[in-house]
Each structure stands twice: as structure tokens, then as C-alpha cells.
């Protein structure tokens, strides 16, 4: 097989449109993958930190450490976020169920169907009833929430409900606006999705992503005039690696295109 067969001719077209030789296009493709790896690593660290910081802030300010659990209505969340929490709860149950052995799973039938499993019950229905038995923790639900859920809490819909009474403390520099945070998170989210689907990030889209990542990295937990924050120390190695791969990619781009 030729190298192009590993990449696919269709995928390589994106890079060939910027080069004059297939060999250069292949090299550009591989540089893009390396950059994508560093981008995803930095974004993952930011996503983890954002969701945990946001969760703790909301728990403290609204007085509910388990606001993601069923039956808790402490936070003024919109239908979209409520549905996202329900999905996360379901996925948390599925994750817990998947760790059981076949014997343990079938043992649950005695509780899922106390009167005996009805004839004709499909496997899908049986599994759903078994999973419904699991009582998942707040932490388990957090682990199943998406980046989309957390970045939406910084959207304009929550300016008065969440940002002003609580979430602005996650980004305590009073000179920052919620819209600045939201815009950067949207850029990072879009970049994450492109990289996750092995789509190239270059040119203006890449520059915007780097600026957005730097902005959030500098702003998370930072008061006005504060430069050395806990998150910047926590993410130092990942940030340095990203900067190196970014500069390497830019040089390769100028050389190969």
C-alpha cells in the first residue's frame, strides 16, 4: 500500500490544495496531527479544570453540593442543561453497569423484575431496567458531563442567573466580561471538535484557538494584576508543549506551502 492509502486521497486533498507536491501534503498532514495532539491535551486539561472550578463555585454559592443529582432544583437551569444532566446521569449508570461481570448483571434481574422477568422481554429492556437500579454519585455524573454543558453555563442566557451571583468568581478579574469568557470557550469547543474528528486546524482558525486558550489560561482563577496562578502552574508543561508544536507547525506551514 502507498502512504496515501493510509491517509486516503479524499483527506489528503485538503493539504494538497496548499502544496505543490503530494510528499509535502503528507508532511503537512503529519505536522497537523502532532499539533492536534498538543491542542487536545491542553484543551482536556482546561476542560477538566473549568468543570471542577465551576461545579465547586456553584455548589458553594447556591448551597447545594449535589446539584446535579435527580430531584435537585437549586440552580435555575434551562431545559437544554436539564436534559444534558439527565443524559449524564444515564451515561453514569451505563458506565457503572459496564464494569460488572455477566453473572453480576444477570443477578440484578431479581431486583429489576421482582415478580420475575415477563416473557418476551428484550435484552435492551432488561439492560435498561438493570441500569435504572444504580444510584450514581454527583462525582460520577460530573465525569459524564460534556464540555458543551459547562461552556453553556457562561452563555448570555445565564448572565443574571449564574454569572453575576456566582460564576464571575471563577474568573475574578472584574475587568473581564462574561461575553469575553463565553466567546473564548466557544472557540475552544469548536477547536476541540475539529481535532477530535481529525479535521485540520490552521490559519486564522488556529490563531484564534491559540489566543482563546491563552486567554482562558490567564484568566481562570486570576485576579486583576495576578500573573502566577494555580492553573497556570498546573498547565505549564502542557502549555509549553503546545507552544513548541504551534511554532513548529507554523514553520512547517511556511516551508511546505
Main β-sheet description: none
Distance between the termini: 26 Å
Strand content: under 5%
Low-confidence stretches: none
Which features does this protein show?
flat; 257 residues; mainly alpha
Put the structure in a nutshell:
By secondary structure, the protein is mainly α. Helices cover 67% and strands 0% of the residues. It is flat, with a radius of gyration of 23 Å.
Structure description:
The protein is mainly α. Helices cover 67% and strands 0% of the residues. The chain has 14 helices and no strands. It has helices at residues 3-7, 9-16, 22-62, 79-98, 102-107, 109-112, 123-131, 138-142, 147-152, 159-163, 178-196, 203-219, 230-234, 236-256. Helix 2 (9-16) crosses helix 3. The longest helix has 41 residues, at 22-62. It is flat, with a radius of gyration of 23 Å. The two termini are 26 Å apart. The mean pLDDT is 93.
Summarize the topology.
Layout lengths: L2 H5 L1 H8 L5 H41 L16 H20 L3 H6 L1 H4 L10 H9 L6 H5 L4 H6 L6 H5 L14 H19 L6 H17 L10 H5 L1 H21 L1
